[in-house]
Amino acid sequence: MRTAFVFSLLTACPALAGGLPDAPPEFPAQDPMLVQLGWMLFYDPVLSGNREVACATCHHPKFGTSDGLSLGIGDGGMGLGPQRVADPANPPEQRIPRNAPALFNLGATEFTTMFHDGRLEAKPDEPDGIRTPLGQEMVHGFSGVLSAQSMFPVLSGDEMAGHYSENDISQAVRQGFLTGETGAWARISARVMAIPEYREGFEKVTGGVPAQFTDISDALAAFMALEWRADDSPFDRHLRGAAPLTGAALDGAELFYGAAGCSACHSGWFQTDHEFHAIAMPQIGPGKAARFERHARDTGRMRVTGLAEDAYAFRTPSLRNVAQTAPYGHAGAYASLEDAVRHHLDPLAALRSYSLEQARLPDLPVDDLRIMRDSREVEAISRANQLRPVDLSDQDVHALLAFLDSLTDTASLAGRLGVPDAVPSGLPVPQ
Known about the structure:
Elements: H1 2-11, H2 32-42, H3 55-58, E1 77-78, E2 85-86, E3 113-114, E4 120-122, E5 130-131, H4 145-149, H5 157-161, H6 168-174, H7 184-193, H8 196-206, H9 213-227, H10 234-239, H11 247-256, E6 276-277, H12 302-305, E7 314-315, H13 337-345, H14 347-352, H15 375-384, H16 394-405, H17 410-413
Antiparallel strand pairs: 1-2, 3-4, 4-5, 6-7
Helix pairs in contact: 2-9, 6-7, 11-16, 13-16
């Protein structure tokens, strides 16, 4: 049995059973000039309303391209990663409602769905082939979904835009002015183009045509696609036949693609089926609610589709570098990978016994357990659960953890370009 399993992995032949990858991923080439511009912009707080939050604030290589927090602090925070705290002079209005996802391999062609609920996704029958929650208000001309997704954090008051009326960007967002010459995106673009190094760089890319925010987002996408390609882990080398897995990692691979059933959802080269599943993950924090709503629930995919069968379903995350991207779950409920794995063994029991001590949250005077204390809400999450209990021993769990660790591409963690010492705006770089 083991010999057959090893052979199938080593040969990586087509039509492998049990969710094993059947073809290497495709990574389109990126424009070096766009990559260079995107590198600077990713670490430059100039894109945020108050010029204090960069993309890298919540997606930093020190923390596996996330922020090391269950639910982070964007605008209104100070510091980086688990040390980030509220600014007492201008505290955040609330926590960011969902865990900051890792950015590895988003440049691969198979990644066509963005965000935990998939609210932005490739759709051939939509304008530019992209469905977004903004519908007709969305501007056109993106290079793809990875570019389009960067349009949203800059509009979020909790993430980058800032509190109502405290800067011109947040004012435009809260008043609904997104497009046009005075819209939020145009204002951000004007800021960037007012900096000579950015203006000159984009003029080389656009042929002298004034750059729009889609050019900025294309640059960010090109950078992310190149910077965090992660396809040289021990498991990749195993698949290529260069260095087979052994010991606990091999035992864990057999369980993952066999009796444990992990590959039913975590399939393919990057261990994701890109679909949505309800697995009774604990709901902590403010939930996904509009400013006029008073609930703290997060119904996941159902907020996008309106379908009851999508309640509490969230996108299957890729597991590449998963040992480096804690915390886990759409709300970051589990700071420990082992706790996250054990949740999958008996989701309903784990949900009902959940403790906030399993999360990693910055100190804020908020109630993070509103949903978990509401028996009706917990029951609704339980009813939606699609996972059946799995009986695994402690040894099995540790083998699974060893396999998950074999998905770490160590060289990709720091990125190819790394963190710049300075950015063209002169603003502080998240270090």
